[in-house]
Amino acid sequence: MKLWVLRHGEAEPRANSDAERRLTAHGREQVLRSAAELLGQPLQAIFASPYVRAQQTAGLVHEALGFDKPLQTVTWLTPDTDPQEVIAELDKLGLEQVLLVSHQPLVSCLVGMLEQGHRQGPSMSTASLAELEGDWPLAGLMTLRSLSHP
Question: What domain of life (predicted)?
Fold first, then answer.
């Protein structure tokens, strides 16, 4: 399985709620730089948090890649979701090439859990993209192939 984990681009500092924060112009530029790294990858699905900034990020990637399947919004990619829950959801999907678009602290915790078996993951700034590979999406059994920061 190949899994890409993308943190949303830079967002406005304030909105009526955290879930309503939108991408800034700089955030959109960051996302497009990260999307370029996904060109040519045989993605089967793009899953995104329902938060506005993640939806905007996933939408930009979707468009930049000319992805032909609909973007899938899931509640299990919000900032405070337990990484074990995400791993369980990934296991149920049975897909081989997946992009997840989410937030801190989840993205770092998830990468740490998949690679090292614990929540202490790498620092992921806005629009950071992690690429993991392994036979199964299980704690400690995936290899971090790359981590880029636009």
Answer: Bacteria
Tokens in use for 49? 């948090």
Residue type, 126: T
pLDDT per position as a tens digit, 26-49: 999 999 999 999 999 999 999 999
Q: Residue 119: what pLDDT?
A: 87
Tokens 């971090």 -> residue: 144
Q: Residue 47 sits in which domain range?
A: 2-148
Task: State both tokens at 19.
Answer: 């879930």
The whole-angstrom separation of Cα 2 and Cα 26 is 28
CA atoms within a 13 Å half-sphere pointing along the CA-CB vector of 37? 19
Beta bridge partners of 144: 132
Antiparallel, parallel or unpaired: β 143-148 and 45-48: unpaired
